[in-house]
């Protein structure tokens, strides 16, 4: 087990199998040492994490949904790296979409669920740029969707 998966285990996280695409796209594309991972929706062990921030879901629950998306992103990175997560050199950028009402303004705090987790799990490798934006709706009614750009060896 590599350093990143050891740290994940210390945090009580075991990466799932990389989720299969839900439509006509690929889960990731590698160009040189840059890996582009398609949007990962909030889907946990018990199924889809649905809800609309500012309506039937609060910010802490949204942050947990974002954390789940970050775990799925790492699962895709591991798959792209042939099972060796230690090939990850840097989380470059995340774009987080939050299913929220027009007056909800805590999108950054929701996406912090992913950013905080990646920092805790990966240290400096997990530090990244990002966007956190509102969406009127997301696929299947999920609360959060996040895509990412990663640098790998």
From TrEMBL:
Pfam families assigned to the protein according to its UniProt record, in alphabetical order: YjgF_endoribonc
UniProt-listed InterPro entries: Endoribo_LPSP/chorism_mut-like, RutC-like_sf
CDD domains, alphabetized: YjgF_YER057c_UK114_like_1
Listed name of the protein: Enamine deaminase RidA, house cleaning of reactive enamine intermediates, YjgF/YER057c/UK114 family
Domain of life of the native organism: Bacteria
Gene3D superfamilies: RutC-like (3.30.1330.40)
Record-annotated Endoribonuclease L-PSP/chorismate mutase-like domain positions: 5-140
Highest classification ranks of the organism: Bacteria, Pseudomonadati, Pseudomonadota, Alphaproteobacteria, Rhodobacterales
């Amino acid at each position: 087990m590599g350093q990143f998966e050891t740290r994940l285990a210390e945090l009580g996280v075991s990466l799932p199998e990389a989720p299969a695409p839900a439509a006509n796209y690929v889960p990731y594309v590698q160009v040189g040492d840059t890996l582009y991972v398609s949007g990962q929706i909030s889907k946990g062990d018990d199924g889809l994490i649905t809800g609309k921030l500012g309506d039937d879901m609060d910010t802490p629950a949204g942050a947990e949904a974002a954390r789940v998306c970050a775990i799925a992103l790492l699962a895709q990175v591991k798959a792209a790296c042939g099972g060796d997560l230690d090939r990850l050199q840097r989380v470059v950028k995340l774009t987080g979409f939050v299913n929220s009402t027009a007056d909800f303004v805590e999108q950054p705090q929701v996406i912090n669920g992913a950013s905080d987790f990646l920092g805790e799990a990966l240290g400096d490798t997990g530090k990244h740029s990002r966007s956190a934006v509102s969406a009127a709706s997301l696929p299947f009614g999920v609360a959060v969707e996040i895509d990412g750009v990663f640098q790998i060896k």
